[in-house]
Specification:
It is a single chain. With 114 residues, the chain is mainly alpha-helical. The protein has helices at 24-50, 84-94, and strands at 79-81, 105-107. The model has no long low-confidence stretch (mean pLDDT 84).
Amino acid sequence: MICPECKHDVNDQASVCDICGFELELYKQAYEKIYNEKLQQLNEFETMKNQPQVVYKTVSLPTQAVHQPRCPYCNSEDLTRITSVDKAVNIALFGFFGNKRKYQWHCNNCKTNW
C-alpha cells in the first residue's frame, strides 16, 4: 500500500509508516468506514431506483368564457363599476336627489349609468 502522507510504499500489515510515522491503522479504519457508508448509500439508491415511480399527468381543464358586461345602449365594454364609496359620496353631496345609488355600472363611452 502507499502511505497517504509521504507517498512511499509500505507493508499492508504495518500499523505505522516506517518513513514518516503516519498511523496507517487509523487511516484504514476511517477509509473502511467511509467506504461502507458509500456502499450503503449506493444500495439505498439502487432500491429506490427499482421502486415504481409516480408519474403525474397534467390535465387541461376546459376554459369557460368569462362574461364581460356590456353597455345596453352602445354595446361598449369600456365600463366602470360604481362602488359603494361613489354612491355614499353622491348621497352626501346631493342627498335624496343623488342618482348613483340606483345604479351599478357606468359606461365610459356614452356616459350612461345603469
